[in-house]
Model the fold of this input.
Amino acid sequence: MRGRAQNYLRWFNITLDFSIWIRVCVYLLLFITLGVHSSKFDVNPVTDDISRLSVLRQNIPKDYKIPVHYVPKEEGGMCWVKLNVFYLEESLQDLAHKFGNISSNRKDIIIFIQMLQELRLNMGSLEPIMYDFECHYREERWQTAQYFDFVKDFLLAAESREDSDDCYPPPCPTTSYTGGYIKGLYFSPVGGVKSDEKQP
Done:
């Protein structure tokens, strides 16, 4: 009788262990399957939210003069995203403060601010490269359409990871430019980063 009970317990333990392993395998397969599925169908949040720019562009008066501190793309090259992320985030924060807490414009702008904050934190320290390109920074005030063209180009460049760790600044500009941002081209008077401004 005792031997039969021992055999039964041994069989029960084996069955229990086998069922545990089956569960582990099932969960593992589910995890792998869901992981592959999510990686295939995951949509970049930049692509999801970039449509909000057209809404902001329509909602904000066209004659707004929005302050911008930036490096032209032709001068920043593959480092353009790194050079502009801090001041673009700062510019959007200033713009958000112009709207009330319940404003849809403010909520949409905050979404982009959070995206830029995450991007900037993942880039590490930006002070050295910003210092190297100090003489290439421009200060302007753009109308709404020009401003959001710039924001859109920046987000698309960040999404496609158009950046590099090896950044070599060109010679400091010696000529003046006409202010403006049109179809991916940047034109502005020569300016620099002031020593008393907040640094990243």
Remarks:
- The first helix runs from residue 2 to 41.
- Residues 1-42 form one domain.
- Residues 7 and 13 are 10 Å apart (CA to CA).
- Helices lie at 2-41, 45-49, 51-59, 73-76, 80-96, 104-123, 127-132, 144-159.
